[in-house]
Amino acid sequence: MSGQGIGQILVYAVVLVALAYPLGLYMARVYASGFRVRWLSGLETGFYRLVRTDPSKEQDWKGYSKTVIVFTIVFFGVLYALQRLQAHLFLNPDDLPAVPAHIALNTTASFTTNTNWQYYGGETTMSYLTQMAGLAVQQFVSAAAGMAVLAAVIRGFSRRSAKELGNFWVDLYRSMVYILLPLTLLLGLILLSQGVPQTFSGHATARTLEGVAQTIARGPVALMIAIKQLGTNGGGFYNSNSAVPFENPNGLTNFLEVISILLIPAAQVFMFGKMVLARRHAWMVFAAMFAVLVIGIGIALPSEQHGSQVLRASGVDITQGHGQSGGNMADKEVRFGIANTALWGTVTTDASNGSVDGGHDAFTAYGGAVPLVNIFFGEVIFGGVGSGLYGMFFYIVIAVFIAGLMVGRTPEYLGKKIEAREIKYAAVGALFVPTMVLALTAISVVTSSGLASVFNPGEHGFTEALYAYTSQSNNNGSAFAGYGATSFSASLGAVAMLLGRFAPLLAALALGGSLAGKKVAPVSAGTFRTDGPTFVVLLVGVIVLTAGLMVFPALTLGPIVEGLSH
Amino acid sequence: MFRDLKSSAIAVVVITLVFGLAIPALFTGFAQLAFSSQANGSLIKVDGKVVGSRLAAQAFTKPRYFHERPSATSPPYNAGGTTFANLGPTNPDLAKAVKQRAAAILKLEGPYNPGLTIDEIPVDAVTTSGSGIDPGISPAYAQVQARRVAAVRQLPLATVERLIKQHTDGRSLRFFGEPAVNVLELNLALDRGQNG
Fold first, then answer.
1. Same domain, B33 and B64
2. ipTM, 2 decimals?
3. Which of A149, A157, B37, B195 sits between 20 and 30 A of A92, alpha carbons compared?
4. Are residues B47 and B36 in the same domain?
């Protein structure tokens, strides 16, 4: 680890907070009922008229949920059809055939749930139309849907004796037009200027200096990469994702992309603080998330710099310095080196982004365990746009419940009594997905059709399977990419992604709806304070004790035994 | 339910038209006007013919050229189908591949670098890149190859080392990322120097 590498990570943290804080305050204004941009308000009312909604009419949690689900189902159909029909549609200059049914199904589930798991190589499978008008549109929409749901859940915390949580169409429109679109255009422009392509021309063909023909894939890339990062999507235009120079040409683009991964999820913590008038509490939630992030980097970075067993044994030079970054360079890019790849791998799995700038399958045993555990925590360390913070609410409710048990008092959160119903929703929200991960992983390693996907031998192969179902169930999308697509794994993954998206989403809306109806009790001497460091420790403890203990036995079979036994 | 279905159907059409077609089309139009080279893949032309992209490695096998990092794509350095190698940190196939690559480098560079041993070969030289088309090698790996290229081309070593320095992409804003030598641009500069 060089000082330079650590310096880059420190600058990352400072820039992240400096950008996320003001953005969060802006976002809180965007979701407030009176928000209006005068010169754009005609478009906004036009949209509401088109979708036949009265923006002043709000929905209760059930109505809101229904609209989210129906909206997703309709888009599901369109995206599937687009992939199956792409050969007959326009913007397919390289004449790609229809996407096979099981890949199209998995990909549709993947992009409508903000997962972006990719059982295909983008540049060799998807037409420009599919990438641009199908996948990239979902990268806007699934992100905006998550952001909308979060805004609704937060209203449940801040309202008193109410039923309504908001109007889905209003929250969706504002997320897309006032938050995601301007940031995407800005980032897309910078990426373009640095070398990320944006063209409708088909692949280029070069005659190399040694006289061989070389195909160079390109397309409408820059805009997709921008929304892929900002919307915690992660699905790249190219198979090797952000390791490919055409997605991520240099150190500057790498820095901006990795900032973008956490920007909105981090901003949402501050947005939450402003919306519920509990800024100190929001800082504590931020601190808990940040602590886990730092621990992750603290393990991943030295592990990757130390290098893998095979490389250390090979005798080549893996020491850092003298014109190289050294360490485990397998499936990593020289222009990013160890520090930037370890940082990215940690951050992309704290968020539910899942884009990668180096191959996770080739990470060292412990370096690869960090992303795995991050995802298993339920994508709450900042997490996905919207889904990260509403996922964190489950852990927060459980934390105040445990604190309440310890002091022998009915737990309260933000002045509202937490009772049996809320605990049930929180328990479902926090435990459903990790339970499903373990079940699906078990199925995949005891059936021969499941084992057909495994690429690496031994315990590393088990980790591949565990990572695949952890990533898909938690809607992350990064992979130990040796794990291959079969119709079995693609279908099982599709189920995991859909259940993993909607079970917590519905639990969160139900929680918000239930809390919205309650009165606010005044703070008393017996109230457990959620705005101090004790709360941070308790919250991190709850995450580690629930999700952490669930994944630990599986970790011992995979990365831990791999790290110890060679 | 029916109301939601109708609203959703309209929203899906509107959003796809605006976010999937109109905005990307406008953005692409702007990109083609304002950043035409970057927007089309940073292609490098020599005498009007495309010889590659500054953002993609290509196969170099001749001793007069600097060589790229190993690639897992098929064929190697396929910029139309990127991929990782995905070999785990304890995979015996990785050990075998690294050993073979190191031996090949020692055989190729040894005659020009008397006394070259395996512990002087930088790790990026024996590992596949993430993309399979990493356009850069570490300055350390360029240094290992410099004597060979200088000898084969009958150039002073200092000239080759100067060219390496010229074609090293430093850290962005002198801070972000790691230095990398752009192999294609370096080789082009070498060719240019000898032809012109």
1. no
2. 0.97
3. B37
4. no
